[in-house]
Specification:
- GO terms for molecular function: ATP binding; protein serine/threonine kinase activity.
- It comes from Corethron hystrix.
- This is Protein kinase domain-containing protein.
- This protein is α+β, with helices and mostly antiparallel strands and 428 residues long.
- The chain is 47% helix and 12% strand.
- The protein has 14 helices and twelve strands.
- The strands form four sheets. Strands 2-6-7-5-4-3 form a six-stranded mixed β-sheet. A two-stranded antiparallel sheet has the order 1-12. A two-stranded antiparallel sheet has the order 8-11.
- β3 and β4 form a beta hairpin.
- The longest helix is centred in the middle third of the chain and has 31 residues.
Length: 428
């Protein structure tokens, strides 16, 4: 078997088969959307998720393909069936400047129908950015899916819809709209913010920059090289901190992601990191704590990043996400692929049973290595909570940002980030 084939084998996403019947799961999701279009956010504000007909949306190029789904850019929208009684008011509300005020006016006048139409109109009017790039993307099942495979994929997409409707965090992708019909209907889709680089692609770029900096070390201007390398480290820690913040937010809501990997993390137009693909996510029982374990579907996720207890189909909980984050954080720092030469069998023998882990760089500060070790620990009760992980990353990121002060004109953006980190620590 070629090395490339081995890598493909180990990186396959192992999708779960639902423990409940497909019908029961879909009915639960559908009931959720009927009773509450979007659960309360941090401000106890219920937000309507706009619903669209398929004929209203025009698609462009394919942005990505998953195991069961396809994501395409939305080039434009042409809304249909707007009641004449509302149409004139809606046409006057196509600006984002006073959206909240206008939303209140429309809701007071026309109820939830007015809110839904205004949100639809706002998305249609702002479908393109000023530079002509598409703002939104549409995710739907692959047309080639049949039988049981299609049922499982439909459950994944329905579960993702439900989870994204429950959460609101700056580093988690937002669901902006959805198909007007129920999840049972053919052609069901969700509308998401468009992302650009995945973390996997970003890591390749980081590695190229590292190689460039290293090759420049023999030149006289070592101070500049040090500044550039420090800036790169700050970028990495910013990404890791924001990602940890997103996972901590999920865990506070008792939600496990269960498939944390570079392919499921992207960057938006502002270069903010975003966690996406919640098809394997699981909402745990009320009162669940970081190291609690539950009887859940085994082998859910991607083998390379999967906690040993998940691979072995033992009980597990939110700490499995912490393990995945530990492997991922090592990859962010090293810019190398973990377990790159491991077949699935070798991975099971060495990583799951014999507790082998990627080699830590001896040049890394002990704090970094300790953090990683305390994330990917074999024993569940030895792993940190995501709150602790976020605190440690925030402190390290803050210190890296201090190094950035005065390096060059781009330091301003890092000072801004540093200030927000400082506020974080004062609050906590």
């Amino acid at each position: 078997m070629s090395q490339q084939s081995k890598n493909k084998d180990i990186s396959k996403t192992v999708h779960h088969l639902p423990t409940d019947s497909t019908k029961d799961v879909l009915e639960e999701v559908e009931t959720f959307f009927i009773e509450s279009v979007e659960e309360n956010n941090e401000d106890n504000e219920v937000v309507i998720i706009p619903k669209f007909q398929k004929s209203e949306i025009y698609l462009g190029t394919v942005l990505g393909r998953g195991a069961f789904s396809t994501v395409k850019e939305i080039t434009h929208m042409e809304l249909e069936n707007i009641p004449d009684s509302i149409k004139n008011d809606v046409n006057h509300h196509d600006s984002t400047k006073n959206f909240k005020k206008e939303l209140t006016e429309m809701t007071n006048k026309y109820g939830t129908e007015g809110e839904n139409i205004l949100r639809r109109n706002m998305m249609s009017a702002n479908c393109k950015r000023k530079n002509g790039e598409s703002r939104y993307a549409l995710k739907q099942l692959g047309k080639e899916l049949r039988g049981r495979q299609r049922e499982v994929a439909l459950v994944d997409l329905a579960v993702e819809s439900r989870v994204l409707a429950m959460i609101r965090h700056p580093n988690i992708i937002k669901m902006r709209g959805m198909f007007e019909k129920c999840v049972f209907e053919e052609g069901y889709f969700i509308i998401l913010d468009r992302l650009y680089d995945t973390l996997e692609e970003r890591i390749v770029k980081w590695k190229d920059r590292e190689m460039e900096y290293r090759s420049s070390c023999c030149f006289p201007n070592k101070k500049k090289i040090f500044a550039l390398h420090s800036k790169l480290l700050a970028e990495k820690f910013c990404a890791a901190f924001d990602l940890a913040s997103a996972i901590e937010y999920l865990h506070k809501k008792r939600i496990m992601h269960r498939d944390i990997k570079p392919d499921n993390i992207g960057f938006d137009v502002r270069d903010d990191i975003k966690l996406f693909d919640f098809g394997l996510s699981k909402e745990l029982v009320a009162g669940a704590k970081p190291n609690d374990v539950f009887k859940l579907t085994g082998c859910a996720g991607t083998l390379r990043y999967m906690a040993p207890e998940v691979v072995q189909r033992k009980k597990y909980g939110m700490s499995a996400d912490v393990f995945s984050f530990g492997i991922l954080f090592w990859q962010i720092l090293s810019c190398d692929l973990p377990f790159s030469k491991f077949s699935p069998k070798r991975h099971y023998d060495l990583v799951v049973q014999n507790r082998e882990r990627p080699m830590l760089d001896s040049n890394w500060p002990s704090e970094w290595s300790s953090l990683i070790n305390n994330c990917w620990a074999h024993e569940i009760n030895e792993r940190l909570s995501m709150t602790a992980v976020m605190n440690i990353l925030g402190q390290e990121y803050h210190e890296l940002c201090l190094i950035q002060d005065g390096c060059d004109e781009r330091g301003k953006s890092y000072k801004r980030r540093k200030s927000s980190t400082s506020i974080f620590f004062k609050v906590r």
